[in-house]
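Task: sequence in, structure out. Protein: Small ribosomal subunit biogenesis GTPase RsgA.
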Amino acid sequence: MSYHLSQLGWDDHFASLFSRWDRSDTAPGRVLRADRGVCTVLTATGVTRATLGGSVMIDAARDPALLPCSGDWVVLRHWPDRRTTLEMVLPRRTTLIRRTSDKDSSGQVLAANMDTVAVVEPIHPEPDDARVERLLALAWESGADPLLVLTKTDTTSDPAAVARQIGELAPGVPVLPVSVQRGAGLDELRAYVGPGRTLALLGRSGAGKSTLANALAGTTVMPVQAIRDADGKGRHTTAYRNMITLPEGGAVIDTPGIRGVGLLDTEGGLDKAFADVTDLAGRCRFDDCRHETEPGCAVQAALADGTLPPRRLASWRKLRREVEVESGRRSARLARVRRAPAPPGPHRF
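Result:
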């Protein structure tokens, strides 16, 4: 079975990156799913399973974020004994990455090379403002275009009003109310995932990501579990990252349901997610204003006249402190890696 990789976003940029590895025994492919040491990869001749080559493992030992993940374009090598190994992850155009729970501030890549990151938030029982802000910062930092998708809008009588309210948390981000049950908003969502384009879905378990993926694919490609009516929470339907190709071209990456999202070095994404606050901060009289009691503070003035909610400012401060701490930890870890002697490894073919 042949497949046109251009339908998944293969273009001159990635072809140029691959050219130095182009040999009779190699081929480019895109990772559909990554398991422990084995990746399911789509190539021009179909789907294949590939084990990780030694150079990839060495890179990952230095930085786990370099492990291949769903959406990565990679170099495969076919061996005479019919083995296939994944020898190289091509440089990513965009990367959706969150902080892991360890103390050295390493990152876990959730998806790669997506054009749009959709933050998926259910409106039942009610949206979580703080979670939406945190996920939008992650989406902005990825380098892809962020999108806020509000699911289960059939549970409210006025989804447009909810969208306007939540939209205040997402300056510069399109807000799309969707009901898979009623088919509302799906055509608008499909516009983000046409031929050559990739859409990543990001949100908590039970938000409706797998349901959206199934609706876009036109068939059941991801398992869906019922949620609890009382709190709207679901079990972790998707425990792994998976890229789904669509019949009309394009792909959807369904990420695992996320209970908590740690931010890494996402100061740029945070500034965009809180563009309203950072814009106010730029108007303060003093460049080093802490937005507390300083004279001429535009942030405090906005609090006083009600244009900036106190909760919004508190959320911005909390996330800024988190990013500052994690940036320091990450810098210290990278410094240790640079000082450590490089381990011997296989020659890159």
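The two ends are 28 Å apart (CA to CA).
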